[in-house]
C-alpha cells in the first residue's frame, strides 16, 4: 500500500474511534488544550512528506525534548556521560524516587525525569548559554529558526516543579548534580516548554532515522555510532513504564511527551510523529499509540 | 567486510582478551563447565553458515529456552496469554519477588523466571505431554531430532529450585498458577536443562530472523505478526537487568542464559549465537557480549 | 474505678457501637465464624479474674500462637536464635516478601509470618515431637490439658498455604530454613489452628505479665530477662503494620490474630484478652482494639 | 543497688570498653567533635540527680529536638495533626524517600526526618515566631533560659541540607507541606543545632517521665494523655531502624541524635541521658546504647 493511502486509512479509522484517554492536568496550562486535536506526519527518506489533521499546529513537546538534550550532550561528551546516567529501562513510574535512592543518585536512563535533569546539569556545566544553544540545535536539525518555547507553559510549569526539585536535591546529595538547582531546573522546564508541530518534529527526528544526518541539507549532526545508541535508548526507555508495550505493539524506537506528542523512527526509512492530547493511564497518547500501531501493521514492517 | 573475515577478526581479538567473568555456580553441575570454552556461529539468510571455536559442542541453554516455550505457547494461544504475563522490562534482578508482589502475581514479562514459570503452567494446561512436545518443537525448528536434555544438569537443578518454587507458590496465591506446583517446576527445569550447540541454536533462531519460517525447509512455524512480538520482547527484556546495555552496545534482539550462551538475531539478515561460560556481574556471558558488539560494529549495522 | 465497673462500662459502650470490621475470609473455615461474638477477659495479678461476653468460648488463636512458639524456642536457645531472625518492626504488610528479599532471607522479627516460620523451623530442629511439645507448653502455662487444635481450621488452612510455602522456599534458598518445607509448614499451620478462649489466653499471657512465672502455681517458665525481651518484641512488632497505632492508642505489649483475638499485658499488673472476629483494614480486631484502648484510658495507666 | 553505685559500675565498665563507633561526618562541624567525650545523667523523680563524665558539656542535640517540636505541635493541635503524619515505625533507613513515595507524602512517623519536617511546617503555620517559641518551650521545661543553638553547626548544616530539601519538595508535591520550603528547612536546621548538656536534656525529659509536668516547678506542660502518646511514639520510632533492638536491649522509650546523644525515660521513675559521639552503623551512639542497657539490667527493671 502507498503511504498516502495508509495515512488515509488511519485517518478514517480514527474518525470512528472513541478516545478514552485524559489530557494531562498536573499543569493548568496543559489542561487547557483541546482534547480533539489530532495530527500525524510521516517523513520518508525516499518519498518525502505525508500527513493529515493538525499536523502543522504547535504543541508542547515536553519529554520529547529529552531526546534533543541527550543528543546535544552526547555530541559534546563521550562515554564519560554514561558514568552519570545508566541506560537501563526503569520499570517504574516515570518520576519515581525509589530506584534513584537504591542506585545512589545514578538515574536508570536519560529519558526519565531524573536522567534528563542530570543531562540538563551537564549542559549547564558544558555550555555558555545552554537555553540558546539548545534552541540553536533544534533550529539546525529542523532548518527552522522560528521554533521557540511557549511562555505560558514555561511559567505554568515553574509553579509545579516540586517533584523535579526533589529529584535534583536528592541527586545533589549523592554528588550527581554539580550546578545550582534553580539553574538546572530552569533549563529543564525551558526545554519541556518548547513548542513544535508534528511536521517540525518529524523533520527533527529524520536525523535519527538517517544515521545522524539531516535530510534537507545532508549535514552530519552527530556520528552514526552515537545515533544508534540514542535509538537503542529510545527503544528500551522511551515510553515510561510502557516501553515494552510500545515495542510490542509498534516496534519502533521513539519518545512520547505528556503534551500528547509521540515521535518515532524506522532507521533508514522514515520519521513519524503524532499529536493527540488525551493520555492513557501510563502517560502516553492514547490515539497516537493506536495510529503508530496501525502504521507499522499496514506498512508490514517494524524494526522486528 | 565479508562475514568470514569479520568472524576471523573477532576470533583473533578474543585470543588476547582476558575473561573477567565468573562461571555460574548456583548449580554444581554448571560450575564444572570449562571456562575456556568459546564458540560462535553466524547463520545468514543469504549466505549460510559461518563459525569458529566450540560451536558444535552442546551446552545447557538454560534461560534461552524461555524463548522456545514462549513461542510454543503463543502458537497455541492468542492475546489472552498476555493477561497472565506482561511485556514490560523488569528493571530488577532476574528472579526478584518484589515486583511480582506489587503487581499481584502478574510477572513483568515472559523472559524473567516468574514469567517463564507462568508460560510453563500454560503449557501444562494446554498440552498432553508438554516435555515431549517442547522437544518436538525444537526438533522441528532445527531439523535435528537428536536434541535432548542433559540429565545431570536436570537432576542437579532439581535440588536447587527453591527460588522458583517460591515464585510459583506466590503466583499461585494470586491465582496465576493453575496446575500442581511440582509438575510446573518439573517442566521448567526440564526446558532449562536442554543441551544445544551454537550451531543448533543459530538454526533454531533463524525462525525469528526469517519472519517465522525455517530456512532449511521453508516451513511457517508461527505467524509473522507473532514473531515480531517475540522479537520486540527479546529486545526489551532478553538480558535481565542489562537489556538496555545490550540494546545500546549490540543493538539486536536476543536472549542469554546462565550456561553462558547468547542467541540474537538481525531480522531479515541472520541469527547469531555465542557460548562462553564466564558471566559478568549481571548474569550475561562476558565474552559473548563482547563478540556480539564487535559483530554489529564490524558489519556496520544493528537494527538501529 | 474498680476493674469490674470498668469492664461493665466497656461492655455497655460496645453494645451501642457499630462494627465496621470484616471477618477474615482467606480461609473458608474462618469466614464461617459469627461476627457478633465478643469476649473480654482481664486477669489481674492482685485481684484475679474479670470478664464478660463470650469469654469462655474457644476461637482460632492464629498469630497469637507466634508468641508461644517464640517463647518455647527462646527457652531452648540463647542469643544465637537472633542470628536467624531480627527484632525490628517490619513496616510492611504482614506477609510481604519484599523485605525478606532485601535482607537475604532474615525475617524482620519473629511475629511476622516469615519470622514465625523460621521459629517453627527451629522447633522442628530442636524438638523430638514439636507439635506435642508446643501443646504441652500451652497446657503447662494454662494449667489446662484440654487445649487442642481445631481440626477443621487446620485442614482448611492446609489448602491455602501458598504464601507461607513461598516464604519458606525463599528463606530456604538463602539457607535460613534447615528442614523439609512440608514439615515446617505443617507445624506452623498446627500452631495457628490452636483453639483457646479469652479466659485461657489471659491465663497463658499472665506468664508475660508476671516476670515469666505462672500465677496459679508460681512456676518459672522462662527467665525474667527473656520475658522482658519477648514483651519488648510484642510492643514493637505485635500488630502487623499497626504496631505504632496500637502502642499509641493502647500502650501495652500484645499480639493479635486474624481469628479476631488480641492478647495484651501490663507487666506487673495484668493480662487482658479480647475476641471479636471482624478485623480492621490492617488485620487487627476492630472492637478488640477499641475495648483495649478504653481499658487503658479508664484505668488511667498504660506502660507509658 | 543504689543509683550512684550503678552509675559508678557503668563508668568503670566504660573505661575498659573499646568504642567501635564512628563520629557522624556528613556535616563537617559534627565531625570535629572529640570522640572520647562521654557523659551520663540520671534524673530520678524520687531521688534527684546523678551523673558522671562530660554530663555538663553541651553538644548538638540533633534529632532529639524532634521530640520537643512534636510536643510543642501537639500542645497546639489535636488529632488533626495525625492526618499529616502517621505513627508507625519506618522499617527503613531514617531519611529514605521510598516509603514517602508509596504513602503519598504522609511520613511514617514524626521522629524520622520527613515527619519532623512536616511538624516544622505545622509550627511555621501555627506560630508567629517559631524559632523563638521553640527555644522558649525548651527554656520552660528546663528552667534554663541560656539554652541556644550552636551557630557553627547551624551554618554548617545549612550547606548539607539537600536530602531534607528533597523530602520537602516531594511532600509539597503531595500537598503535605504548606509553607515556603526555605522557611521550613531553616526552622528544622535551627532545631537540630540546639546545644544542650546531658543534665539539661535529662531535666527536659523529666516532663515525659513525670506525666507531662516539670519536676522543679510542678508545671503541667502538656496533658498526661498526650505525653503517653509521645512516649509510645518514642518507644516504637525513636531509634531509626534500631527501634526494635533498643526496645529489646534497653526497654525504654527514648530518642537518639547523630550528635551522639540519647535521651530516654522510665515513666514514673526517671529520665536518663547519655552522650558519646561515635555512632554504630545504624546511627545510634555505640556507648550510649551500652550504658543504657547496663542501667536497665542493673536496676532490674525496664518498662517490660
TrEMBL record, chains A, B, C, D:
NCBIfam families: Gln_ase, PRK00971.1-2. It comes from the Bacteria. Keywords: Acetylation, Hydrolase. Gene3D superfamilies: DD-peptidase/beta-lactamase superfamily (3.40.710.10). GO terms for molecular function: glutaminase activity. The keyword Metal-binding does not apply. It comes from Aquimarina amphilecti. It catalyses: L-glutamine + H2O = L-glutamate + NH4(+). The keyword Hydrolase applies. Substrate binds at residues 63, 113, 157, 164, 188, 240, 258. Belongs to the glutaminase family. InterPro entries: Beta-lactam/transpept-like, Glutaminase. This is Glutaminase. Its EC number is 3.5.1.2. Pfam families: Glutaminase. One of its GO terms (biological process) is L-glutamine catabolic process. Homotetramer. PANTHER family: GLUTAMINASE.
Amino acid at each position: 500500500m502507498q503511504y498516502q493511502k495508509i495515512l488515509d486509512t488511519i485517518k478514517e479509522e480514527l474518525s470512528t474511534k472513541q478516545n478514552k484517554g485524559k489530557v494531562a492536568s498536573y499543569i493548568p496550562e496543559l489542561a487547557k488544550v483541546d482534547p480533539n486535536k489530532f495530527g500525524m506526519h510521516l517523513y520518508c527518506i525516499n518519498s518525502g512528506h505525508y500527513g493529515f489533521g493538525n499536523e502543522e499546529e504547535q504543541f508542547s513537546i515536553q519529554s520529547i525534548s529529552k531526546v534533543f538534550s541527550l543528543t546535544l550532550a552526547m555530541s559534546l561528551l563521550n562515554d564519560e556521560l554514561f558514568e552519570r546516567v545508566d541506560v537501563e529501562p526503569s520499570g517504574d513510574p516515570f518520576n519515581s524516587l525509589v530506584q534513584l535512592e537504591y542506585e545512589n543518585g545514578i538515574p536508570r536512563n536519560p529519558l526519565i525525569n531524573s536522567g534528563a535533569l542530570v543531562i540538563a546539569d551537564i549542559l549547564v556545566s558544558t555550555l555558555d548559554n545552554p537555553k540558546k544553544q539548545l534552541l540553536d540545535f533544534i533550529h539546525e536539525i529542523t532548518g527552522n529558526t522560528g521554533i521557540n518555547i511557549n511562555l505560558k507553559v514555561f511559567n505554568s510549569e515553574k509553579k509545579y516543579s516540586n517533584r523535579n526539585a526533589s529529584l535534583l536535591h536528592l541527586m545533589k546529595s549523592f554528588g550527581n548534580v554539580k550546578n545550582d538547582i534553580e539553574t538546572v531546573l530552569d533549563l529543564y522546564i525551558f526545554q519541556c516548554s518548547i513548542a513544535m508541530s508534528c511536521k517540525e518534529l518529524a523533520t527533527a527526528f529524520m536525523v535519527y532515522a538517517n544515521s545522524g544526518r539531516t535530510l534537507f541539507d545532508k549535514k552530519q549532526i552527530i556520528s552514526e555510532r552515537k545515533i544508534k545508541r540514542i535509538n537503542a535508548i529510545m527503544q528500551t526507555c522511551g515510553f515510561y513504564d510502557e516501553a515494552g508495550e510500545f515495542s510490542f505493539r509498534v516496534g519502533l524506537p521513539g519518545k512520547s511527551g505528556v503534551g500528547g506528542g509521540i515521535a518515532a523512527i524506522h532507521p533508514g526509512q522514515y520519521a513519524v510523529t503524532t499529536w493527540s492530547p488525551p493520555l492513557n493511564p501510563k502517560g502516553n497518547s492514547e490515539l497516537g499509540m493506536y495510529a503508530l500501531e496501525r502504521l507499522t501493521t499496514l506498512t508490514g514492517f517494524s524494526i522486528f
